[in-house]
Please model this.
Amino acid sequence: MSWQAWADNVTSSGFKQGAIYGQQGGCWAASGGLDLKGNEHANLVAAFRDASGVRGQGLWVNGVKYIALQCDSECLMGRKGDTGVICIKTKQAILIGVYDASLQAGEANKRLTNIAASLSATGY
Model:
């Protein structure tokens, strides 16, 4: 499966935007207009190691500031109004999904976790 197919799989799973970024940098593929700005990628990578920064300053994705709800070494979740973002770290990548009110946080997390598990199973 191509990288673009993986990103499209995120949006076809109910997310408004989706992307796959390498942990070392660079966008592998994106759909729905998701594009990390400035230091957003570096901040996400750092948040997987130490979440204190995003807990205090928010989780920034695609120029939008989300309130950090869950932050650990494998998953970052944020919320802004009725929208949310989930970032899941796999072996080599960061899978990102942005959702709106049509998808509940728990269901969004489950869907993106399943996609991330499939991606990890391929070695990435």
Notes: The chain has a mean pLDDT of 94. Residues 25 and 41 are 7 Å apart (CA to CA). The radius of gyration is 13 Å. The longest strand covers residues 64-71.
